[in-house]
Amino acid sequence: MTDARGSTGPHGEAPARHTPGTPCWVSLMVHGLAATEEFYGALFGWEFRPGPQQLGPYVRALLDGREVAGIGQLPPDRHLPIAWTPYFASQNTDLTAETARSCGGTIGVGPLDAADAGRLAIGSDPSGAVFGIWQAAAHLGTAVSGMPGTPAWNELLTFETASVAKFYRAVFGYEEEPVVSADFDYVALHLGGRPVAGVHGLGQALPRDRGPHWVTYFQVADVDDALDQLVHLGGHVLKPVHDTAHGRVAAVADPEGARFALLQPAG
């Protein structure tokens, strides 16, 4: 696990444009937009302003005036899993979407323009995990990293890593670095020698009610305090705090059931 963007500036600013293939944005579609804004605003200190409305009501979350994530409202008749979706940077959304299709993925939304912000598509890999593709124009993506309330890592939870990692390698040009272990199926996806995302094969331990899915890790200053706040706000703890090589981590869900993780970095 490491920062999911390019090298950052002295104050945590993301580079002017994300390297193709790097996670550049995370977005959540929910039924109760106002309540979700209240939850994440209290948990992470986010403020909100309206964003492109092509997909319905949508807001961008900001920290100190800089964009970190997006939240949109699902139409009342759409009963989709409520989930954080990572978007991967692309220089040509149409070409990347076509490559995803040819490699066994599906494209469910787009490609389409989000006003002058950029061009997007939303698809799923061959195992069914949903991801986005973003070709930046006016909106470059997440503008700040390395501080509480910002996305720190994206990890795919799936049945097994071999075939699905091959898909992402073909679509986004990743190099793979497997974790060599008899009982741990994990591959880090690298660009330019730098890890940008992970794929964790859980086999039959994958939640049956959820299926393969991406999980976004959000950085917090103190994971215990963040968990207390999360529960107070109506969220749920899915996996209690545990220590990892990268810091203290807890798996959680918001009041509508969107799963994500809290990360208190080591050191």
From TrEMBL:
UniProt domain VOC: residue ranges: 150-265
Domain of life: Bacteria
A Pfam family assignment: Glyoxalase_6
InterPro entries given in the database record: Anthracycline_SecMetBiosynth, Glyas_Bleomycin-R_OHBP_Dase, Glyoxalase_6, VOC_core
Region annotated Disordered, chain positions: 1-20
PANTHER family on file: CONSERVED PROTEIN (PTHR33993:SF10), GLYOXALASE-RELATED (PTHR33993)
Protein name: VOC family protein
UniProt source species: Streptomyces olindensis
